[in-house]
Amino acid sequence: MVDIRLEIDEGIDRQDLTRLRKRFLAVNHDRLQRAHLVMSSRQQLVLRLLPLLLHVNHPLLPGYVSSTTPAGLSNFVPEPDLVQEAQSFARSFTYKAPRGYRVEQPLHALFLMGSLGSVAYAEDSDMDFWLCHGADLTPAQLAELRKKCDLLQEWAATLGAQIYLFLIEPEQFASGQDNDRQLSLDDCGTTQHYLLLDEFYRTALWLAGRIPIWWLVPVYEEHRYAQYCATLLAKRFVRSEEVLDLGCLAHIPPGEFVGAGMWQLYKGIESPYKSLLKLLLIEVYASEYPQVQCLSLSYKQAIYANQLNVDELDAYVMLYRRLEAYLLERKELERLELVRRCFYHKVGKRLTQSRLNRSKSWQRLVLERLTNAWGWGEALLAHLDRRNQWKVGQAQQERRLLVNELVYSYRFLSQLARSMQTEQAVNARDLAVLGRRLYAAFERKAGKVEYLNPGIAPDLSEETLTLVECLPGDGSEPTYWGLFRGSLAGLEWQNHSPLKRGKALLPVLAWAYLNGVIDESTRLTLLLNGSDLTEYELRGILTSLRRVLPLPFAAVTEEKLLSSSYPSAVLLLVNVGVDPLRQHSQANVHMASEQVDALGFSGLRENLVLSIDQVVLNSWNELIVSRYSGDNALLQCLSELLNASAGKSTAAQIHVGCFCQNRAASIVKRVEQVVAQVFASIEQGKDSRYLLQIEQQLHVLEWRDGRAGFISFTHVAELSGYLAQEQARYIRWRVDEYALLGHVLKFILPVGREDAIQVFYRVNAGQAQLYVLDERNGLWQQSQPFIDEQALLLPLQRFLNSLLYRHTVTESFTEQALNSTQLSVNYHRIYPDGTDSPERIERCRLVSAEREHTFYAVQVIYEEDGSLTLYCNHQEFSQLQYGDQLYHYVARYILGMRRTAERYPCYITDIDLAKIVGHSDVQTMHFLQRKTILERRLNAALQQL
C-alpha cells in the first residue's frame, strides 16, 4: 500500500496505523544514521548514552543527583551493548527493569531537534534535546531533574558535544505555555509557539520513549486534530502510554510570523546566511495565510504518500524546495540566486575540494545534485569556496545583496504587522527596536563608518597597504586620502583603485580599523603630498583606536535602543597630519616659551590646536567620525559633543590623543584639561557658562536649557556688553585659568551667587570702577570719582536696600516665600589699586548711620504708559506736569537744597517698576541699568544750570 488514508468517519485500520508508525521510525532511523556519520565518536557516544542516563539513577554514572531524581523513559529498554558502554563509566552498573514496568514512567520521551541529521549540520553545531515529562512532577522533582540535565550538559561538553536539554511538559506546551524558560531565548519579545512546533515536527529525531500522536493524524484532519486524537485514544487504536501530544498546526496566529521574523532579522544582522532562509520561509507562510501549508505538514504528507526518499525529506532540502517554488512563481530570480548562495554557505561543503567519490560524504552528494541542477559552474563554486579568503571588494558586493534582503524583510514584517493588526501593543515596540538595530547596523549617514562584514568573510585583513595623499594630476578633483592594496611607490597609485577613499584621513583609517582591513600585522607604506603626517603619528592613531575602541564592540541592549543614541566612547585626535609650528620646523627652530598654554602659546599667543578629528562610538554601536578645523575647532567639537550627550546620566569616556611633531604632550594635557572642566561645569544639569581664551579672542561656551553653543568676542568690551544682558535665571560662571589673565573680571565672575548681590570696586587715579554681579550673574559696572569708600558705596547701598525692601513687602506671604532665602548684599574692594593684575579681594564693612543725614531720597515711580514721576525729598515732579523739562526742574530743586552751588553728582535711591513689569521678579541689573540712565540725565541737567 502506497498512500495511507485514515478516515475517522469511515473507520481506522490498525494495520495502517502500524505501517505509518514504521514509516516515521524508518525515516527517523535513516536520519539518525546520517547524524552519526557526521559526528565524532565521542559525540556519538553522548547521543547513544543520553537516553540510558536519563532512564536510570546511578551514583557512578554522569548526571547523578540523587536516587529520587525523576528517571525512567516510557517503553525504553536499553540494548545490552548500550549497557556495556555505560559500564565503561561504572563497572558495577547493571541494568534491571524497574518493578511494575508497565506503570507510567515520569519521563515520556526524548527528542533531538534541529539540523542534526540534515544536510546543513556541522560538527560544531549545538544539539538541542527536548525531554518530555509527566504533568505530575512536583516543583522539587522538577528542580532535581533540571539539575541532572545541567550535569549531563557539563559532562557532554567534556566530550566535545555542546548539548542543551529543555524540559517540556506536553499538555502545558500544547496549550502554548512553553514551560522551560530557555525555550524563549530564540525570541525577540513576541511568542512563536507554533513555528517552533513546526520546526520540531519536521526536524526532530526521536531517540526514546513515546512517539508524537501528531504522526498519526492525517494532514486533512489537522483542522479537527483534538477530535481525531480523542477517537484514537478512546477506541484504543493507540494506548495513551505509547504517545504524547504536543499540539497541532491547524492554525498559526499571524502575530507569530512577525515575532519569528523579528528574531530572525535580529540574528541576521550578525549571521545573515541562515537567517535569510528562515526569513523567506516566514514570508512564504504569511503569503499563504490563513491556509498555511507548513513544511512539517508537507513532511507528514510525504510519509503518508510513502515518499520516503531521505534526501528529499531532509529538513533543509525541503526548506529550499519551498523557497524555490515561491520565488519561481513570483519570477524573483535574483532573490532565488541569493537563497541558493545562502543555502550553499549554510551547508558549508566546498565542492571544489576533495572531489573523489570515495571521500564524498552524503551531504556533499546531496549538494552536488542541487548545484548541478542550478547550473552552477566551476568558477562560481570556486569563488564561493574561497569565502574565507574574500577581501573588501567581495565583501562589499555580498553585503549589498544581504542588506537589501534584510531591509526588504523588515519592511515586509512592518507591513504585515499593520495589515494583520497583530498584537500591536507588543509588536510596535519590538518592531521599533528591531528597526533601530537595522538602522544602526546598515543605514548610511554623514560621518558614519560603514561596517562591511556581517558574518560574510572571516578575515578582511591585508598584509600590505599603501596610504596615499592623492592629488589628481589635472587638478580637476580635490585632494583626497586613498587606501590601496599592496606596497606602491611614486605615482603607481594612479593605476589602481583604492579600497577606500575619503576627504580626510581619519574616516579612511577608522573604516579600515572597524572592518579589520588593517590589523597589527599589516605593513603600511605612506605616500604624502604636503601633509605633515609621519609614520610615528600613523602608528599612534591606530594604537589609540585599538585602545579606546577595542573590537568587537559589546552587544547593544534593548534598553539602549529604546532611547536615542548618545556617545559612549570618544576619541579626540588633535592635529592629525598637521604640524602647528610648521614654519619653525621648516626653519629647524625649536620653540621654547614660558607661555605653555597650547591655546595661547608663546608671547604671540599662538593657537596650537588647529584641527580635531572626533571618533565616537555611540550607544547603538555606530562609529561616527567628524572633523573640526580652524581656531574654533575645540569649541565646535565640545558644543556638538555636549549636545549629543544631553540628558544622559552616563557620561562618555573621552580620550585625547596627539602625535604631531611639536608640543604634542602639552597639547594633549591642555585639551584634556578644557574637556574635563567643561563637562564638570555642566554637571547636575544646571545652566552654566565657561569662559575660554584662544589666542586673543574670548569665547563663552554656554550650556542653557539642555543645549550647548558658544559666542566669540574680539575684546573684553564686547564681553562686558554680553555680561550686561538680562537673564531669566541664575547662570553660573567658570573661567578657564588662562583666560582674562590680569583682568579684574577673572576675579569677579566666578564669585557670583544665586542668593547674593556682589559689589566690587577698584580705585585708579582718583576714579573708582564699580562692578555689581546680581543674583542672576548679570554684570553692571560704572566709573565715578573716588573720595572715600563710604561716599562711593553708601548711595549704592541705599538703592539696593530699597530694592530688597520693596521686594520683601510686595512678595505674597506664601509658605514658599517665607521659607525662601533672602538676598544678601556683599561689598568688596579689589587690590592693588591702579591697573596692575588684581591680587586679592577684601570685604568692606559699611557704617551708613554716620552719613545718613547727608543724603536725601530721590525716588522714581514708573506709570503703566512708561511715563515717570520723581520724588525728591518727597517733593513730586511728574512728567505729565513738566514734560521734557522734567530733569531740569528736578536738578534746580536739588541744587537749591544744597548748601553750596557745587555740581557734585546726585544719585537715585529707589525705583518702582510695578506698573510696568507687573511682578516683583525683576533682575537687579535691570534696576541698576535704569538707575544709570536716569542719573546720567539728571546730572547732565544739573551741569547745565
Automatic annotation (TrEMBL):
Superkingdom of origin organism: Bacteria
Adenylate cyclase class-I N-terminal domain mapped to chain residues: 17-215
GO BP terms: cAMP biosynthetic process
GO molecular function per UniProt: adenylate cyclase activity
InterPro entries per UniProt: Adenylate_cyclase_1, Adenylate_cyclase_1_N
Pfam families registered for this protein in UniProt: Adenyl_cycl_N, Adenylate_cycl
Protein name as annotated: Class I adenylate cyclase
Species: Denitrificimonas caeni
Top-level taxonomy: Bacteria, Pseudomonadati, Pseudomonadota, Gammaproteobacteria, Pseudomonadales
